[in-house]
Amino acid sequence: MILMCLLGDVSVTSRRRTTIQNRIKCCLFDHSRRKQQDSRCFHHSSSHQASFKSDTMFFSSNVLRLILLLCLVSSSFYLSTASSSNSTAAEQTLRPQEELQKLKLIREELQKINKPAVKTIQSSDGDTIDCVSTHQQPAFDHPLLQGQKPMDPPEIPKGYSKEDESYEDSSQLWSLTGESCPEGTIPIRRTTEQDMLRASSVRRFGRKIRRVRRDSTSNGHEHAVGYVSGRQYYGAKASINVWSPRVTSQYEFSLSQIWVIAGSFTHDLNTIEAGWQISPELYGDTYPRFFTYWTSDAYRTTGCYNLLCSGFVQTNRRIAIGAAISPRSSYRGRQFDISLLIWKDPKHGHWWLQFGSGALVGYWPAFLFTHLQQHGSMVQFGGEIVNNRPGGSHTSTQMGSGHFAGEGFGKASYFRNLQIVDWDNTLIPASNLKMLADHPNCYDIRGGTNRVWGNYFYYGGPGKNPRCP
């Protein structure tokens, strides 16, 4: 309807436009040809002048209507295009806003994790160690711990002997500065924005990837472990030599640890874990670092590494969980160990951790767990890596020393003096130890027993090789 009103009678308009166009065409002839006068051009009768004036006005009116129509059509097209452009612009604008929201979330998380420092120590590896008042550590953010203070040290398991620690202990880089945290504080590695920006998810920062089964490799986790099961376990102990295996991707890691496990490998898995690891995503470098972990629901929503959530209660002012270990073992050279002991306090039921020769690090409160409130049903010792299959082939991330178990002492990595804690809070040899390697052509394991090392095994490997494509 709008189009018809604007154009009027199309046939009349067309005829009059033709007349006007002919006159214009004639009048625009070359000047030299104007001698051939055309009556259409130079007829000066008043009636024709009036007619010409009338036609011109009619034409002008319709031209204006046509222009108006074109404006409306153009406006409609512009609005449609502008809407599309604005939608694209909005999407582009959304990305910076998402980044700003992410930074805001990161800063909120950092405020929860990083507590006020009484003293700050700079480590040679770039770490900042904050000495935080013991009662202000992240653990006491937990509703069930608020207002409390750390528990007194428990009774050490019977049968514990420092004589088992016959090799040189590793220490931590930050402590080589000669500085230490004052009484009443604990050392905490400061978490930075860069640490959190490296994470694939801010919400999942400091947590392991969820797994359905321990021995499943569908998500790229591969293991070489010795384990015991079928009884009730109240702790475990071992000495592990420390290496600097190559980790080829930011989102892969290599670790060696002890697991104390209860529940099933589905939704209700409880684990307590401690050892050393290299994780570029978590720490931003490739130093081997002392770490802890826990979960009570198969890595779904509970638990975290180190002190990155409220859980583990630290009591030691000389050991920083998450700090780099030094020195490390070398191929055909000196071997350096860390000794770890995890056990359940018979009196209060909490799970304590000892690092090295008699240094109590702290404990996991019993209420964090379901099955582990009573005891463990399995203990594992060994290595784990993440294989992201770069380029479609197996990763070259190394486990342990990066050499196969068959190379033996000074070349392969090992666990020695494997023990478990029984119901009577007594350390006994980890007998009936079973061996499992998910991909023995990539990483393998080989065990044995002798008078000096008790139960032990060598483990590890290079990852990608002709037998592990």
Automatic annotation (TrEMBL):
UniProt-annotated stretches for the region Disordered: 141-164
Domain called Neprosin PEP catalytic: residue spans: 215-469
InterPro entries: Glutamic_endopeptidase (IPR053168), Neprosin (IPR004314), Neprosin_propep (IPR025521)
A Pfam family this chain is assigned to: Neprosin_AP
Matching PANTHER family: PROTEIN, PUTATIVE (DUF239)-RELATED, PROTEIN, PUTATIVE (DUF239)-RELATED-RELATED
Protein name per the record: Uncharacterized protein LOC104701696 isoform X1
Organism: Camelina sativa
Upper lineage: Eukaryota, Viridiplantae, Streptophyta, Embryophyta, Tracheophyta
